[in-house]
spermidine synthase (Musa acuminata subsp. malaccensis), 306 residues
Amino acid sequence: PSAEHGKPADGVSSVIPGWFSEISPLWPGEAHSLKVEKVLFQGKSDYQNVMVFQSSTYGRVLVLDGVIQVTERDECAYQEMITHLPLCSIPNPKKVLVIGGGDGGVLREVSRYSSVEQIDICEIDKMVVDVSKQFFPHLAVGYEDPRVTLHIGDGVAFIKGVPEGTYDAVIVDSSDPIGPAQELFEKPFFESIAKVLRPGGVLCTQAESIWLHMQLIEGILSACRQVFKGSVNYAWTTVPTYPSGVIGFMLCSTEGPPVDFQHPVNHIDEDEVSKKSKGPLKFYNSEIHSAAFCLPSFAKRIIGSE
Ligand code: SAM
């Protein structure tokens, strides 16, 4: 059965027998489908339906409430961009917080930086962590870094307990604003993030698709422009298995040392230590970093430049 309007799907919304179709009120009238070789896990946590299946062309796939979160084949695009767009924009990031991101992929990318001393992650659903460790070793490897501390809980509550000015960077790797992630797209949450960032600290948050969610993006943009007095920028990239094949990121900085997101000061794609320990980057590089801020006219008119 597919999702009735406004309610998350039950997990397996297969329209064509043997295929998983991603049906959601967040992208009405369309659905991306992947051929299912085998369902590897199905569960219901306190927060959401959790499913893992082996697809025929994208490797293993993690699905939460009927929405694709990561696939083995194209996760590199998302994890590398959501991590390196902020962290390559500031010199020597030391303390980083990840909210959401329970699969561990962002942790894997943050741990590439030898300047980083502390990586905190707050993921609401332990089932996602456990499922990732069992089925997605190339993502969950992020948890093996000794600098990582895992907090299981709601990011909204967690951030309230963090002293002001603690972090150089916060990365919000959240699911969509239906279900447990809803508050992660609202102004009060952005205000609490601004408080825990140092002056000139940076936020990067998952910011949906310019093809599907311009209204939602406008709302996030106006909230961020009220809260972040450094700069607010929108970047985007291609991830084939996300709805419309693209996903965006909101890049914000607090007042303080200026941050020019469009011209990276770090070049993690050339860092030999990172390449040796974690393998070469599959997607991100400094050119695609700068290009990510170039928008099509229909989006530029609404999002505008800085
Ligand atoms: N790459 C994916 C995307 O762009 O949609 C996100 C992947 S990650 C699996 C999303 C994570 O956010 C999930 O594990 C979910 O449990 C977590 N999450 C949702 N709401 C949350 C909240 N309020 N606090 C902490 N984690 C949350």
